[in-house]
Design a protein that fits this description.
Mean pLDDT: 90
CATH superfamily: Vaccinia Virus protein VP39
Shape: globular
Largest sheet: 7 strands, mixed
Number of helices: 5
CATH architecture: 3-Layer(aba) Sandwich
Strand order of the largest sheet: 3-2-1-4-5-7-6
Number of strands: 7
């Protein structure tokens, strides 16, 4: 499994087992060091960390059975490029699991001015459900299943079977 923008491996560490290998990537060397320390202290097998950007993953095409992106999709400069690169390293029909933000019906992000301020000051993109479905389709994913709780959007999507995804310049 690929854990995109893994931080200290908060989610990947809970998925890894002797039969499940997790590769976490992040741009923060500090977070990766912390994750390495946690896995050593907790005796968690099969977790590997690498410093990488989502736009240029250091893995071969079709390597992963699944991918996870928790709490970071809304921060990537170009969502389609990020999703296409994630799709590139996934096997056909592999599942992508994400949590990010949506305006929702509750929570502070339901207010347009708060969303605009968050984007301007912090680069936080808040996804409408229809927008997320379109971005996934444009990136080679299908079977979008979502759940909204307040302003939290969790979803899964499946890489299109038989799809070879290329990123600009590759």
């Amino acid at each position: 499994m690929l854990d995109v923008a893994c931080g200290p491996g908060t989610y990947g560490r809970r998925i890894a087992s002797p039969s499940k290998e997790v590769f976490g990537i992040d741009v923060s060397i500090g977070m990766l060091r912390q994750g390495t320390a946690y896995t050593a202290k907790e005796g968690i097998p099969n977790v590997h960390f690498a410093r990488a950007r989502v736009e240029a993953l250091p893995f071969e095409d079709g390597l992963f059975d699944a991918a996870l992106c928790c709490g970071s999709l809304h921060l990537f400069a170009d969502t389609v490029i990020a999703l296409r690169e994630i799709a590139r390293v996934m096997k056909p029909a592999a599942i992508l699991s994400v949590f990010t933000f949506t305006p929702g019906r509750g929570g502070v992000l339901k207010f347009r001015r708060v969303r605009e301020w968050s984007l301007k000051k912090h680069g936080l993109h808040v996804f409408e459900l229809s927008e997320m479905e379109q971005l996934l389709a444009a990136s080679g994913f299908q079977d979008f299943h979502s759940e909204v709780c307040g302003s939290i959007l969790t979803f899964s999507a499946r890489k299109q079977a038989g799809l070879t995804t290329k990123v600009c310049g590759s």
